Amino acid sequence: MKIIPKKSLGQNFLIDKNIIKKICNVGNLRINDNVLEIGPGSGNLTEYIIQKKPKKFYVIEKDKKLIDHLIDRFDDKLTVINQDILEYDLKLLNDKDFIIFGNLPYNISSQILINLINTSYSNFSYKKLILMFQKEVADRILAQDNSKNYGRLSIISSWKLDIKKIMDIYPSSFFPKPKVMSSLLLFKPKINYIKFKNPKNLEYITNVFFNQKRKMIKKPLNILFTNSKEVVNELDLDMNLRPQNLKKDTFYKICLIYERLSN
Ligand code: SAM
Whose alpha carbon is nearest atom 22 of ligand 1? Predict the structure, then answer.
């Protein structure tokens, strides 16, 4: 079957075998590991993962046209799920400690990551995420306070995950070549993280702060709290700072206070 890559589905297939091998090796797969691949495409990374003989191997691919190709190519070595990852209910996989791979469709990569972070089920968990982003998005995920890339994505990603950059990847490793550089990141769940009643509150709070990122924090605090002085005193905040100057931990603490006061 001839595969014509669809731009609308972010189809840039990996073609560089050395890079594919490296990505696969970051997983450090053992025979009993469960694996999920998001957007397997034509199966170029999938092929290498199969060689590591995972216990269970699921792939979730939205493009119906690629489903028959994947079944033909890999037969019963994996379970192919023809779904949109943004709509699929991961608890249906009903197993734990997944290693999740994904050369992600770039237009929805941040949303996929945020959904994975907010996933919290008793019958589904992951122990590693090995995900490819366009470099500019990876830079935002990795950014620290007081830098230009710092923002919502940096704060939300670090809430529950330790993050490490593995490598940058040139456009020539893909077909068709994307216009931008890509970066591969490895995420591992933190053992200790602040528990929120609802993780959407952290999304909301960071949205309020970074919508007005050049303004001083007084304004977003007044939007979020009827009595913002209470929060300022409790966290000893300097009202002359801007959102970029606040540490990630400060946003987590603001979120906790927001949840406490919204009762
Ligand atoms: N993993 C393959 C590779 O590296 O060669 C393909 C990666 S390509 C960048 C992204 C893949 O995600 C495509 O196969 C695309 O069809 C699929 N995809 C796009 N949107 C999706 C969605 N919402 N849910 C699941 N898969 C999606």
Answer: 84
- Give me ligand 1 centre to Cα 62, in Å: 7
Domain coordinates in residue numbering, the chain: 7-189, 200-262
For the Cβ of 62 lying below 6 angstroms from any atom of ligand 1, the answer is yes
Ligand 1 centroid distance, CA of 111 (Å): 14
Is any atom of ligand 1 closer than 6 Å to the C-beta of 175? no
Q: What's the rounded Cα separation, in Å, for the pair 209 and 156?
A: 13
Nearest to 10 by CA among 130, 102, 85, 104: 104
Nearest CA to ligand 1 atom 18: 39
- CATH fold label, 200-262: Helicase, Ruva Protein; domain 3 (1.10.8)
Domain 7-189, CATH homologous superfamily name and number: Vaccinia Virus protein VP39 (3.40.50.150)
Tell me the pLDDT tens digit for each residue of 191-244: 999 999 999 999 999 999 999 888 899 999 999 999 999 999 999 999 999 999
- pLDDT at site 243: 97
CA of 60 to the centre of ligand 1 (A): 9
